[in-house]
What we know:
Layout: E1 30-36, H1 53-56, H2 69-84, E2 91-98, H3 106-119, E3 122-132, H4 139-147, E4 152-158, H5 162-168, H6 176-187, E5 191-198, H7 205-218, E6 222-227, H8 235-241, H9 250-266, E7 270-273, E8 276-278, H10 286-292, E9 296-300, E10 305-308, E11 311-315, H11 319-327, E12 333-338, H12 341-352, E13 359-360, H13 366-377, H14 383-387, E14 390-391, H15 395-399, H16 401-408
Parallel strand pairs: 1-2, 1-9, 2-3, 3-4, 4-5, 5-6
Antiparallel strand pairs: 6-8, 7-8, 10-11, 11-12, 13-14
Amino acid sequence: MPSALPDGDPMPETGALPPHALAGAADRPLGFYLHVPYCATRCGYCDFNTYTATELRGSGGVLASRDNYAETLADEVRLARKVLGDDPRQVRTVFVGGGTPTLLAAADLVRMLAVIRDEFGLADDAEITTEANPESVDPAYLAALREGGFNRISFGMQSAKQHVLKVLDRTHTPGRPEACVAEARAAGFEHVNLDLIYGTPGETDDDWRESLAAAVGAGPDHVSAYALIVEEGTQLARRIRRGEVPMTDDDEHADRYLIADEVLAAAGFSWYEVSNWATSEAARCLHNELYWRGADWWGAGPGAHSHVGGVRWWNVKHPGAYAAALASGRSPGAGREILTAEDRRVERILLELRLSGGCDLSLLAPAGLTASRRALADGLLRQRPYDEGRAVLTLRGRLLADAVVRDLVD
């Protein structure tokens, strides 16, 4: 089942933010994340805040129905307009994620985008992305999205190997994600991403190379590759505990990452975040860069998280409770935290160090600066950027990014 929400202070029923959160807002980009919490089936490795029809039956009634979800989410966008008041910013990025957003009608996704356009306006060069399950779209659906304003799409491929997909409980067939790339291009999408997962129990190095070759051959301009994390409470965790499938170890994950970087670099992709590669700067995911650089975003939908000016908050998780709050005129926020200057410094190091541009050494405390010199001597940081005042990970450093971050934030 989905993981628990964090602890925090109560959220005001109006959703009001402290005055300091909007200070200097005009100088920061603003994005929207729209969460669609519905899936046709639950994948065995997933602990996201998503729900199948069976899981919702009898626990949310009409309020939790996906038939009226677009209008329910539109109510939160209108609430965002009230909370942000006379904030003059147009929206720079919109990202529709899930769940499976494409379980909704294309017209619903377009309607959700339209309310953001009506309430805030969209920047002329706004990046508008949706995630998509390869089996839930066809050329007509993709054409409707493109005509409605979407210009970037991300398909969940995960693997090209049937036995790997079976372990993950993925429902699409090998070859369908690659076909979707061609269909998206034909519909006019300039930017297309494929999501891959490595380290699935039973996957071999050759399986992973075949998946990478299939992804590259499909012609996307962006690839995301994530190590499988086995979360407690998932079906996959239970299968591993029962000994039905083997657990992949860290060394295998490292080997797969090196293979990914090798194959993608040879195909013209450059890494710009530890798990993300793009063929050009224009192909990078601007919405994710908002997260990594600590900009402002409003997360609408059940369980969605938001951040504006050092205030972070999160919504109630269940679609029924979410819809009920909005229907009664209340914020769906479940809790919030106000970040201290130290919190924000640490988060900048944690997130920016994962980027190809690294983080400024001036962010480091004395102990962290000492640790950075050790990391440099150990070949985890690049010499030239370091001499210019930035901590930038080497390839080996990317393999050990979490450990490097822990040392540098001390």
